[in-house]
Write a structure and sequence with these properties.
Layout (H helix, E strand, L loop, with lengths): L2 H15 L1 E8 L5 H11 L9 H4 L11 H6 L7 E6 L2 E7 L7 H8 L4 E7 L6 H12 L4 E6 L8 H12 L2 E4 L1 E4 L7 E4 L4 E6 L10 E6 L11 H17 L5 H5 L3 E6 L8 H11 L6 E6 L2 E5 L7 E9 L8 E9 L2 E2 L2 E5 L4 E5 L2 E5 L2 E4 L2 E2 L4 E5 L9 E3 L18 E7 L5 H13 L4 E5 L8 E4 L3 H14 L3 E5 L4 E6 L12 E4 L5 E5 L2 H10 L4 E3 L3
Parallel strand pairs: 1-3, 1-4, 4-5, 5-11, 6-11
Antiparallel strand pairs: 2-3, 7-8, 8-9, 9-10, 12-13, 14-15, 14-23, 15-22, 16-21, 17-18, 17-23, 19-20, 19-22, 24-26, 24-27, 25-26, 25-29, 28-30, 28-31, 29-30
Helix pairs in contact: 5-6, 11-12
Bound molecules: guanosine-5',3'-tetraphosphate.
The site of guanosine-5',3'-tetraphosphate has 20 residues, from helix 2 and helix 3.
Length: 539
């Protein structure tokens, strides 16, 4: 190997090791945005965290940037942010917490190497957390748990740990423990070092780091700060955990079998730096990824392989109203990316020069000159990329990372332009948004000329669609919700399928037959009636 090649290979190893690519998942309102903001604050990316009271009016968190997100205070699309925290390159994939965005969220999770799950200490494991967690379990992604809002009236931490175990079916191991709760929440004991950190809110409140005093719990004595009862109860609880709690093992965590649990308050910053430090220490850097070379043959591709490879996990149009374009988001799985690099698009078997890739810190687009495994590239997409596409610098054998599941839609509608003159704009917008994967466009099986049906995993997708059709394509539309409640892809001979009368046979955008049902009962009935066919929930 020449010196240059050797130096480059060494650089690839170092850069891969110092990357952490992850997503924060939570039920809406548990504190994901606040935690993201604090990570930006602690890394020096922002000087003061926007006081939350102002956030929903004028000061949006950096990751909430679409007009509608700000109006509603929910995060609709996934953005990617990159920054350096304590010499580690952080890539955060922002997954929307709203229940209607599950498909997009599932795909985004395929690009994450680990996940921080935020739970509200008063509410415990909520439905959306459970759904998102299931998606993590499918891929055995290591999950950190933050029990947030300890500064408010909350449930007993031991109960919360038990709930995580029962509801999510994973072992929970507390790596730290709260000192006091609610209004008396004062600090955190780091169980691994035995140190107790007591915090005082700074004058700037949660927008700056709190003052902290640290001493060994074993040496602590009651003081003006900490009364005897609180000290005794922390010691008792920790003794109980020592005897009856789950031990933490890095291997079990990396295999997705145990979740380390942290307590804190993202709003006041208590305990948050301890979580970030543990995250840097324990979260995995990018590792080998499976790729298919044929339908039933798989290889693994190591991140430090000299071949550059990446796949598209998300497509998004018009993030920035000043640039009416469409971005494909790629996650790098191996090798080093360089600006102006020529790569091979595997599906199209075509060489392409990647000239304008961006890393994304919300809408503040920076152009990248180089990028490494775990990094997310936003590439201007002139209709070349579809979700699941693989690209690489490898000249030879074919392989693909893109086995991204597509989930059965449960909501169906027709949209019509209010002004027929806007039909063209609407059609363009609909097909663009379908490429992004947010909605699916279906056609009647036997009537190709009929107006298309739209299908989505969640109903809010339709509202987003209407909002974006008007905002970005100038087409005001009306929506007719259709009476179907679930669907399935049909496998087997279409002619001999015995379709219940109120069900409808359609084709999806890949010409696959699909059946829409008015109820779950009807779907099970169709299954019984058609033992030689398969009705599958995801394709
Ligand atoms: P999300 O992204 O998960 O949806 O949650 P987000 O961070 O926006 O937080 C939701 C609300 O919870 C915010 O209040 C936020 O200030 C508050 N919050 C987050 N972390 C903590 C915490 O550790 N302690 C306390 N006490 N509150 C916390 P908000 O913007 O005022 O919204 P709202 O209360 O009016 O809904």
């Amino acid at each position: 190997m020449s010196v240059d090649v050797q130096a480059l290979a060494a650089r690839l190893v170092t850069e891969t090791k110092r990357r952490r690519t992850f997503a924060i998942i939570s039920h809406p309102d548990a504190g994901k945005t606040t935690l993201t903001e604090k990570l930006l604050l602690y890394s020096g990316m922002i000087r003061t965290a926007g006081m939350v009271a102002g956030r929903k009016s004028d000061k949006a968190a950096a990751s909430d940037w679409m007009g509608m997100e700000q109006e509603r205070g929910i995060s609709i699309t996934s953005s990617a942010m990159q920054f350096v925290f304590k010499d580690v390159v952080i890539n955060i994939l922002d997954t929307p917490g709203h229940q209607d965005f599950s498909e997009d969220t599932y795909r985004t999770l395929t690009a994450a190497d680990s996940v921080i799950m935020v739970i509200d200490a008063a509410k415990g494991v909520e439905p959306q957390t459970r759904k998102l967690f299931d998606a993590c379990r499918l891929r055995k992604i290591p999950v950190f748990t933050l029990v947030n809002k300890m500064d408010q009236p909350c449930r007993d931490p031991i109960d919360l740990m038990a709930e995580v175990e029962d509801v999510l079916g994973i072992q929970a191991s507390a790596l730290d423990w709260p000192v006091g709760r609610g209004r008396e929440f004062q600090g955190i004991v780091d169980r691994r070092s035995g140190e107790m950190h007591l915090y005082t809110r700074s004058a700037a409140g949660g927008s700056a780091k709190p003052e902290v005093t640290t001493e060994l719990l074993a040496d602590a004595t009651p003081s003006d700060r900490l009364d005897e009862a609180t000290l005794t109860s922390v010691r008792d609880e920790l003794e109980l955990l020592e005897a009856a709690g789950n031990p933490f093992s890095l291997d079990a965590f990396r295999a997705g079998a145990v979740t380390p649990v942290f307590f804190g308050s993202a709003l006041t910053n208590f305990g948050i730096e301890l979580l970030f430090d543990a995250f840097i220490e324990l979260a995995p850097s990018p590792s080998a990824r499976p790729a298919h070379i044929s339908e039933d043959e798989e290889i693994t591709i190591d991140p430090t392989d000299s071949m550059f490879s990446a796949y598209v996990f998300k497509i998004q149009a018009n993030m920035d109203p000043r640039h009416r374009d469409c971005l494909a988001f790629l996650r790098i799985n191996s090798g080093r990316f360089e600006k102006d690099m020529t790569i091979r698009h595997h599906r199209l078997n075509k060489k392409i020069r990647l000239s304008r890739p961006h890393t994304l810190m919300a809408d503040d687009r920076g152009t990248v000159d180089e990028a490494y495994p775990g990094d997310i590239l936003g590439v201007i997409n002139p209709g070349l990329f579809a979700i699941g596409d693989t690209i690489s610098s490898g000249g030879g054998g074919d392989f693909g990372f893109g086995q991204l599941p597509q989930f059965q839609p449960e909501h169906f509608a027709r949209v019509r332009p209010d002004d027929t003159g806007k039909r063209k704009g609407m059609d363009k917008g609909v097909s663009q948004l379908a490429t992004e994967g947010a909605i699916q466009v279906l056609r009647e099986w036997n009537d190709k000329g009929a107006f298309p049906l739209l299908a989505a995993v969640g109903r809010l997708q339709f509202e987003v669609l209407q909002y974006r059709l008007e905002d970005e394509y100038g087409a005001k539309t009306s929506l007719e919700i259709l009476p179907f409640a679930c669907s399935a892809w049909l496998r087997g001979e279409v002619q001999s399928f015995r379709k219940p009368t109120s069900a409808r046979l359609v084709r999806d955008q890949f010409e696959r037959p699909m059946v829409l049902f008015t109820s779950r009962w009807e779907k099970s009935y169709a299954r019984e009636q058609n033992p030689d066919h398969e009705l599958v929930d995801y394709a």
